[in-house]
Amino acid sequence: MSSANVRVPAKINLCLGVGPVREDGYHPLATVYQAVDLHDEVRATLRDDDEITVAVHTELDALSEIAIVPENSDNLAVRAALLLRERTGTLLGVDLAIRKVIPVAGGMAGGSADAAAALVACNEAWGTGLSRAALEQLASQLGSDVPFLLHGGNAVGGGRGETISPVLARGSYNWVFATAHEGLSTAAVYAEFDRLNAGTEVAHPTVPDALLAALRAGDADALGAALSNDLTEAALSLRPELADTLAVGIEAGALGAILSGSGPTALFLASDEQHSLDIAFALTSASDCADVIQSRGPVTGARLI
Ligand code: C5P
To answer: What is the pLDDT tens value at each position of the chain, 305 positions in all?
Structure first.
């Protein structure tokens, strides 16, 4: 029986510039993505009928979290398989098994990562032979972050996030992530952004020069100082207690502290492995987060293993 196993990373946004809402309801973004060493795995196993099924496995102890990952066609991985079938005309079926490590609804694109992985895994298991470029084109129809999760590394994201272009970057960075007990809906955070900015003129977003210079130089101190996220105010308005989590990491000497994407995961940049451990310890003892994870980036995008 033909099967394919794919490992896919989570993403963080080193900067997230958000512009005025577009007519299609999306917001123009100017972001720099980095793929980080926190992976989901998706296994696609060929079926002898045309059914598409999905099962989600997790080692996360929060059972309530897994309950919100749909095990039907609302799952973005299933939508990815359906889209690939439509594009290639294949009538084959597949069982998708997702091993979830990336926090659910955490602002780290866990659902989008599973969609990117499902595209690569089904393309392999079905022998449909689409090129990486063709898969990227399908990815952009599935969600704003999906093309980047195929790509990995560091990249500038434009459009609504789906347009990826290369960025000159050097260095490997030590991150600490503090996850929250309850996820935040991306759509709800963008809606809050619109509510808070109603009646004001929102500028067209750009990627800060200081951030690009820090990445070119591989300078962690400068990168920490240049981290930014335009969704901060909106996410804190929905979850005021996240400000305390950010403060604990800053107090522990993090080089920079921001929310990841639309939150609620908070991310902290450390200068090295020991510093990362110190920050993780401070967060575990002093903040009310669900979990503290040490990680590194950049790493590659969705890959067959
Ligand atoms: O693209 P994706 O499906 O991941 O986006 C989820 C939701 O986040 C969208 O339905 C939209 O409400 C919001 N969003 C946005 N602008 C973006 C990306 C996402 O408003 N650039």
So the answer is: 699 999 999 999 999 999 999 999 999 999 999 999 999 999 999 999 999 999 999 876 554 555 578 888 889 999 999 999 999 999 999 999 999 999 988 999 999 999 999 999 999 999 999 999 999 999 999 999 999 999 999 999 999 999 999 999 999 999 999 999 999 999 999 999 999 999 999 999 999 999 999 999 999 999 999 999 999 999 999 999 999 999 999 999 999 999 999 999 999 999 999 999 999 999 999 878 999 999 999 999 999 99
Number of domains present in the structure of the chain: 2
pTM: 0.96
Answer whether 116's CB lies under 8 Å from 7's CB: no
User: Does the active-site annotation cover 145?
Assistant: yes
Q: Please list, residue by residue across 118-154, b when 16 or more beta carbons sit within 10 angstroms of its beta carbon and e when fewer do.
A: bbbbbbbbbebebeeebbbebbbebbbbbbbbbbbbb
Q: Which atom of ligand 1 is nearest to the CA of 145?
A: 4
Would 305 be classed as within a structural domain? no
Q: 215 and 128, same structural domain?
A: no
CA distance 272 to 277: 9
Atom of ligand 1 nearest to the CA of 186: 8
CA of 286 relative to ligand 1 center, distance in Å: 33
* Residue 206, domain CATH: 3.30.70.890
**Residue 228 structural domain:** 173-297
User: Is 100 in the active site?
Assistant: no
